[in-house]
């Protein structure tokens, strides 16, 4: 649960920043397109951590076109990080995200917008901001725009639903084969080879750092001064310590003393279980897989009207994780994570079917089935394993 006062303050800072740069976006875009004139072709899109401006260029110079001409050339997306909403430096976010996107684009079949230009400057330039990305515009729609009722579940006719599942399975099958020797975020390495060069920071960690502080210091402590974490046990211990810290510091989690005592009790019981049996059942590996970081939000997938996947967006929270924390999309069920105990039988059914789809995709694409779907299967003795894995990154 977010602290509403802190969140409101950060939103105000965000809005002030956006208003200060909007008039300069076309000038920036033009400077990367040979000085060609451009205009906004749709309203800007305000996200939690970025603002996207949509520009289109004129093919003819101003001197040889009619005064009422409309843009008819290239369409770009100019994406600017919202510094007030980030616990990390905006340039770090851009560098890791661009590195991740280019790796995924070069080594997988996952559709990703082309990154044309980007800046990882630390100080504002002539346009009033330092870091940005200029990307290909993908004219797709997310599932909600296409009419799916995600607050209930992803409902569709069986052939359409299967088409969605196959394409999502392709994403997971490809990502699970991008392995690295530590848990963290990608940065450019030698040549075209990226490396783990920054500590992990998730969406939840970002919010907690903004609310109560100290979260990133805890990450550095568990990383032992290195840029990544090399043990599943150490990473899980970090997540549990962060949850405990939030419970002790935040004023937004519990509404009264009784609720606080109850919440702290169950958090303690969950922590004991994870540090004991759950961790004991987890295989420590020398390799960790790349995770999108916000795949639980179906708005990050763009489709055309025929349900062909056009793009997977917003890789800013991408990082490597232990395989046991590389989890299926909960939006297949259409319920929030905290409600899984109430609808657990329903939850079992959907990922179980998704696992069958994933197996077929892996056989077709790679000639073999990885351990991923086996890790997700919820057979006898494992009915709660996947649910517990979902809770570990954010047990509060």
The share of residues in helices is 25-40%
Specify the overall morphology. Answer: globular
Sketch the major β-sheet. 5 strands, antiparallel
Helix/strand structural class: alpha+beta
Number of domains: 2
Rg, Å, rounded:
22 Å
List the helices and strands in order: HHEEEHEEHEEEHHHHEEEEHHH
| Unreliable parts | none
Give a count of the beta strands, DSSP E runs of length 2 or more: 12
Short key terms for the protein model shown above:
396 residues, alpha+beta, Phosphorylase Kinase, domain 1, 5-stranded antiparallel beta sheet, 3-stranded antiparallel beta sheet
Written overview of the protein:
The protein is an alpha+beta fold. It folds into 2 domains: 4-136, Phosphorylase Kinase, domain 1, CATH 3.30.200.20; 158-391, no CATH class. Helix content is 40%, strand content 15%. The chain contains 11 helices and 12 strands. The strands form 4 sheets. The protein has a 5-stranded antiparallel sheet. A 3-stranded antiparallel sheet has the order 6-9-12, with no helix packed on it. The protein has a two-stranded antiparallel sheet with strand order 7-8. α4 crosses α9 (344-366), α6 (215-223) packs antiparallel against α7 and α7 (232-249) packs antiparallel against α8 (257-280). The radius of gyration is 22 Å and the shape is globular. It starts with a helix and ends in a 5-residue tail after the last helix. The mean pLDDT is 84. It comes from Apodospora peruviana. Residues 74-313 form the Aminoglycoside phosphotransferase domain. InterPro entries: AGP_Transferase (IPR051678), Aminoglycoside_PTrfase (IPR002575), Kinase-like_dom_sf (IPR011009). This is Aminoglycoside phosphotransferase domain-containing protein.
